[in-house]
Design goal:
Blueprint (H helix, E strand, L loop, with lengths): L29 E8 L5 E8 L27 H10 L1 H25 L4 E4 L2 E4 L18 E5 L4 H12 L5 E4 L7 H8 L6 E4 L2 E4 L1 H6 L2 H13 L24 H12 L3 E5 L2 E8 H12 L3 H13 L3 E3 L12 E4 L24 H19 L9 H5 L2 H9 L13 H22 L16 E4 L2 E4 H9 L53 H17 E4 L4 E4 L2 H4 L1 H4 L2 H8 L5 H12 L5 E4 L9
Parallel strand pairs: 5-6, 16-17
Antiparallel strand pairs: 1-2, 3-4, 5-7, 7-8, 9-10, 10-12, 11-12, 13-14, 15-16
Helix pairs in contact: 8-9, 10-12, 10-13, 13-14
C-alpha cells in the first residue's frame, strides 16, 4: 500500500498509451489515471478519485496470524501436561456440561423474550424471524420433557422406548443398571425400585400400563398430559461424571507390600538362558527386600511371593506359576509383553481386590445391553457405532473393563465360562470397531482380531477367545498353529468340550454374521439353540428343491472341523429349522439322491 496503484480502463491499449504511478494511502481516496489519446497523437491524463468503503465499526477486526513459533512458547512439558489432563478430566467435563446447559437456557430465554425483528448495518441487512408460538404442530410434543427409568433386558422398558420412538417423541432414559447412583432417586420419586417409571415433567405417569392407557381417543389424552407437563423431571445423565465411590475398604497388607516392591526392587533387563528378559527381578531379591526392610522371616517372604503370583501381581518370565526363591526371575504384570497393547490397560494395573468374575461380567453385559438398546435397531442388525463412541455408557463400560485385569477365572463353572467369554467377545467387537475399525475378508481382518483385553492376569485377543477358549484351542481358518501352546496358562480356561452352537452366538460386526446378543450363564445352552434357530430363519440357509442344492453360510466351510462332514451337517441343521425348511431338507436327504452344497457369499461390510 506504500506505492501508487494504477487501474487500467478496459479499452484496448495503443502503442502510445502510458501509465504513471502516483502515491496513495489505505485511508485516503484512491486516485485512478486514465490515458486518452488526442487527435495530434499526444496523451491526455485525466485523474479520477474513488472513495473506499470501510467496514462497519461494529464488525470484528481481522487479527493477523502469528508468523513465528519458537520452542520457548511451550512452558509445560508434554508429560506434565498429560498428567494435568488426566487429573482434571472430571472437572473439565463438569465445566463443559454446565456451560452447555447454561448456554441452552440462555438461548431459550433469548428466544422467548426477543423483541427485535430487524436491524441494519451499512451494506448489510439482517432479518430475525420469531416463530409464532401458535404455529406449533403435533411434532412439538417431541420437545416436551419426557423421561423414564429403565433397566437392561427389560421387556416393558423396551416397549416404552418403542412407544416414544414410533411417535417421534424425544425422551431421556435413565438406566439404573448403568447409572447405579440414580436408583436412590428412583426410590425417592416413586417409592419403589421397579421399572419402567415414566415422568412427564416432574409428574409421575406410571409404568407401561398407564402409558398404554393414554392411547385412548387417538392420543388426545397423551397430548393433553404432555401440554400440562411442567416442573423439573429427572435430569439426564451427564457425560464425564462417575458414580459416587463406594465406601473405601482398608488397604490390604499385600497391597502395601506391592507398592513398596515397585519402588525398591532392582528392575532391569537380564540375560537368561541366552534370551533377554525385559524389566525383571530375581526371586531372591524380592525375598531379601521383604526380610531386611519389612521384618518377615524367609519362609513368610516366600509365601508372600506365592500370593503375589497367585493374584497376578507378578509372573515368572517363562510362565511358571509358583514363586520360588533363588535364581528365578519375575516381572510385574504391567511389564509383561502385550500388556501395554491391551485396550483396558491405562499405564497401571488395577491393584484393588479383584471382584468376582461372574459379577464383573454381569455388570459389563448390562451396560453393553443398555448401549445396544439405545443405539441399535430393534432387531440388533444395525448398530450406530458413531453415537456409541460419544456416549456416557461406553465411557463407563471402558472404565469398568479395568476390573477384568486380575479376576479369578478358575472360580467360574463350565457354563459360566461359556457365557463369560461369549459376552465379552461380543462386547469387545463393539469396542474394537469403535477404536480400530475393521477390514473386509478373513485374512485382512487378522489385525482386527488382535484387539486385546487384559483378563485374569493374561492378554486375550478376540482370536484367542474364539479359537483358544470357546473352540477348545483349535486352529483358526488359514492358520497353521493353535492359539495356545504347551505350558500357556490360558489353556486351563479353554472349554473341555467344544459346542458348535457358539458360532451362532458370536457376532463379528458384519452384516452376514449373527446379530449381537448376550447370554445368561444359567440359560446359555437354551439361548444358543434359540440363536441358531433365528440365524437359520434369517437367510442362514436356502433350500433349492428343483436343483437339489442347499446354500449354506460359509461359516460351515471355515469351521468344518467343528461341524463334521457335509452330510452330517445337513442332518444336524434340521434340528434348528422351521417346519417348511426342515420338510424340504428332510425330503432331499431321504430320497437317496445326490444333494449339492453351495456356500453363499459373505457380506463383510460393517453392520452399521
Amino acid at each position: 500500500m506504500g506505492s501508487e496503484e494504477v487501474v487500467e480502463e478496459p479499452t484496448p491499449k495503443t502503442p502510445n498509451q502510458t501509465t504513471t504511478p502516483e502515491t496513495t494511502s489505505s485511508s485516503s481516496p484512491r486516485k485512478i489515471k486514465t490515458n486518452t489519446p488526442t487527435e495530434n497523437g499526444h496523451v491526455s491524463v485525466t485523474p479520477t478519485t474513488l472513495s473506499i468503503v470501510q467496514p462497519h465499526s461494529l464488525l470484528p477486526k481481522p487479527v493477523p496470524p502469528r508468523t513465528t513459533y519458537t520452542q520457548n512458547d511451550v512452558v509445560v512439558s508434554s508429560t506434565t501436561f498429560g498428567k494435568f489432563l488426566r487429573k482434571r478430566s472430571n472437572d473439565l467435563s463438569s465445566a463443559i456440561s454446565k456451560g452447555i446447559s447454561t448456554l441452552k437456557h440462555s438461548i431459550n430465554d433469548q428466544n422467548d423474550n426477543n423483541g427485535v425483528t430487524e436491524f441494519n448495518l451499512s451494506g448489510l441487512k439482517v432479518f430475525v424471524t420469531v416463530k409464532n408460538k401458535n404455529d406449533a404442530s403435533s411434532n412439538s410434543l417431541a420437545r416436551m420433557k419426557i423421561s423414564f427409568f429403565s433397566r437392561s433386558n427389560c421387556r416393558e422398558c423396551c416397549a416404552v422406548r418403542r412407544f416414544f420412538r414410533e411417535r417421534a417423541l424425544r425422551f431421556v432414559e435413565i438406566n439404573v443398571d448403568v447409572f447405579a447412583e440414580r436408583e436412590k432417586e428412583l426410590r425417592e420419586r416413586t417409592g419403589s425400585a421397579t421399572v419402567p417409571k415414566i415422568f412427564f415433567g416432574e409428574r409421575l405417569i406410571g409404568g407401561l400400563v398407564e402409558l398404554n392407557a393414554l392411547r385412548k381417543d387417538g392420543g388426545e389424552e397423551l397430548e393433553r398430559r404432555l401440554k400440562e407437563a411442567g416442573g423439573q423431571g429427572p435430569a439426564a445423565p451427564a457425560y464425564g461424571f462417575d458414580e459416587a465411590e463406594e465406601e473405601e475398604m482398608p488397604e490390604e497388607e499385600i497391597g502395601k507390600v506391592v507398592r513398596v516392591l515397585r519402588q525398591r526392587l532392582p528392575i532391569q533387563d537380564r540375560l537368561i538362558k541366552m534370551k533377554i528378559a525385559r524389566n525383571c527381578f530375581a526371586g531372591s531379591e524380592l525375598v531379601e527386600l521383604l526380610v531386611r526392610h519389612h521384618g518377615y522371616s524367609p519362609s513368610n517372604a516366600v509365601e508372600i511371593g506365592k500370593q503375589l503370583c497367585k493374584k497376578h501381581f507378578i509372573h515368572h518370565v517363562f510362565g511358571k506359576n509358583d514363586f520360588e526363591e533363588g535364581n528365578h526371575f519375575y516381572r510385574f504384570l504391567e511389564h509383561e509383553p502385550l500388556i501395554s497393547k491391551c485396550f483396558n490397560f491405562r499405564g497401571a494395573t488395577n491393584d484393588s481386590e479383584p471382584k468376582a468374575a461372574a459379577a464383573v461380567c454381569d455388570r459389563l453385559t448390562k451396560i453393553m445391553c443398555a448401549i445396544l438398546e439405545s443405539f441399535a435397531s430393534e432387531d440388533r442388525r444395525h448398530v450406530d457405532y458413531v453415537a456409541i463412541s460419544k456416549s456416557e455408557e461406553l465411557r463407563r463400560y471402558v472404565n469398568m473393563t479395568q476390573d477384568l485385569q486380575r479376576v479369578n477365572l478358575l472360580e467360574l463353572s463350565e457354563n459360566e465360562t461359556l457365557a463369560f467369554f461369549i459376552n465379552l467377545y461380543n462386547a469387545m467387537i463393539v469396542h474394537a470397531i469403535i477404536r480400530v475399525g475393521c477390514q473386509e475378508g478373513v485374512i485382512n481382518r487378522k489385525s482386527f482380531f488382535d484387539f486385546h483385553y487384559l483378563i485374569g492376569g493374561h492378554p486375550y485377543s478376540l482370536g484367542a477367545i474364539k479359537n483358544g477358549i470357546l473352540r477348545s484351542n483349535r486352529r483358526s481358518p488359514y492358520s497353521l498353529i493353535k492359539p495356545f501352546g504347551t505350558g500357556d496358562r490360558r489353556l486351563e480356561h479353554a472349554l473341555v468340550k467344544m459346542n458348535p452352537l457358539v458360532h451362532f452366538g458370536l457376532c463379528n460386526g458384519t452384516k452376514s454374521s449373527p446379530k449381537v446378543r448376550f447370554f445368561s450363564p444359567y440359560r446359555v445352552a437354551e439361548e444358543l439353540r434359540s440363536a441358531a434357530r433365528e440365524f437359520f430363519e434369517n437367510d442362514g440357509i436356502e433350500v433349492d428343491l428343483e436343483k437339489r442344492t442347499i446354500h449354506l453360510t460359509p461359516i460351515f466351510k471355515w469351521y468344518s472341523a467343528d461341524f463334521g462332514q457335509e452330510r452330517n451337517i445337513l442332518k444336524w441343521i434340521i434340528n434348528f429349522l422351521d417346519a417348511n425348511k426342515a420338510g424340504l431338507l428332510t425330503h432331499l436327504l431321504g430320497d437317496g439322491g445326490h444333494v449339492n452344497i453351495s456356500y453363499m457369499s459373505y457380506d463383510w461390510s460393517i453392520n452399521s
